[in-house]
Write a structure and sequence with these properties.
The protein is mainly α. It has 2 domains: 144 residues, Glycosyltransferase (Alpha/alpha barrel); 132 residues. The protein is 49% helix and 4% strand. The strands form 2 sheets. It has a 3-stranded antiparallel β-sheet. Helix 1 runs parallel beside helix 3. The model has no long low-confidence stretch (mean pLDDT 92).
Length: 277
């Protein structure tokens, strides 16, 4: 459905029966215009890439990883502006990827894209088949300082990304330390436990739990995990209909983060040459 036009009558431009993801994947939002309109979101697409890679790992069928690679190749050039000079990564494109809908760059999008391309490439075991894409992401990473907001979903995603390269890439260590500092700030300075639940999104908090579980297990972090779960679990059945699916998916990921962990579904190395890139 998400690989087809909003009316469902045809595949997205660029997609074919042989290459069903050649036109990307829509977010699937209900509106076709306005600030919350449907489109193609870089963060969402990154997670689709990861999902396809995980299915390949779990099933042993690399056809799913090949689908993810075809998706990368379909979307990459559309999300990058000024690729030949000073590349800029936009966060949201129109459904047909003809124009940016949100031209700003999310802080973690470059490292997420970099990590995913390296992971897909390593799983494929066919050499540097995504070298151009990896290079573009790395150039953007070099042009922009790493930044993580105090949003719990950003913190969780940052910890999740960094754990793939822990002890290998200096930027990953820097990223994880920023995330841990922000998490500590939320609890100790911003009085996390005193905030009203009605002004927060549970799936953001569950994302933080998933990231923590992937990154490290210690008593301090486990106490934060237990606290977040204890605050939200009594209220899960109170979610609005539109938030219920993503809330339950992220709740499941928070409880059992195995598939999100490096080596969680088998031995894997998300890079080929630790001394470079």
């Amino acid at each position: 459905i998400l690989g087809r036009t909003r009316n469902g009558k045809s595949r997205l431009p660029g997609a074919t029966d042989d290459n069903p993801l050649g036109g990307g994947l829509r977010i699937g939002k209900l509106k076709d215009a306005g600030p919350d309109a449907d489109g193609q979101c870089h963060r969402c697409l990154t997670l689709w890439l990861f999902a396809l890679n995980r299915v390949a790992m779990a099933s042993g069928d690399n056809a799913y990883n090949d689908l993810a690679i075809s998706l990368v190749r379909a979307i990459h050039q559309h999300f990058f502006l000024n690729r030949t000079m000073q590349p800029h990564l936009v966060s949201k494109m129109a459904v047909d990827m003809s124009r940016p809908l949100v031209a700003s760059q999310r802080s973690l999008d470059p490292v997420a894209g970099y990590m995913m391309c390296r992971l897909l490439q390593a799983t494929a075991q066919k050499g540097p088949i995504l070298a151009v894409e990896v290079s573009d992401y790395k150039r953007v990473m070099n042009l922009n300082a790493l930044f993580v907001s105090n949003d719990t979903l950003d913190i969780g995603m940052g910890l999740w990304i960094s754990h793939w390269y822990e002890g290998v890439k200096p930027w990953a260590e820097h990223l994880s330390q920023m995330c841990l500092q922000n998490l500590d700030s939320i609890f100790n300075e911003e009085h996390y436990t005193e905030r009203s639940l009605k002004y927060r999104l549970p799936f953001h908090d569950f994302g933080a739990i998933m990231g923590v579980k992937c990154y490290r297990h210690d008593e301090y972090l486990q106490a934060r995990v237990d606290l977040i779960l204890s605050m939200w679990e009594p209220h899960l059945d109170e979610m609005t209909e539109d938030l219920m699916p993503i809330t339950l998916v992220m709740y499941a990921a928070a409880l059992i983060a195995t598939a999100f962990r490096k080596n969680g579904l088998g031995s894997e190395i998300p890079y080929e040459d630790p001394g470079r890139a």
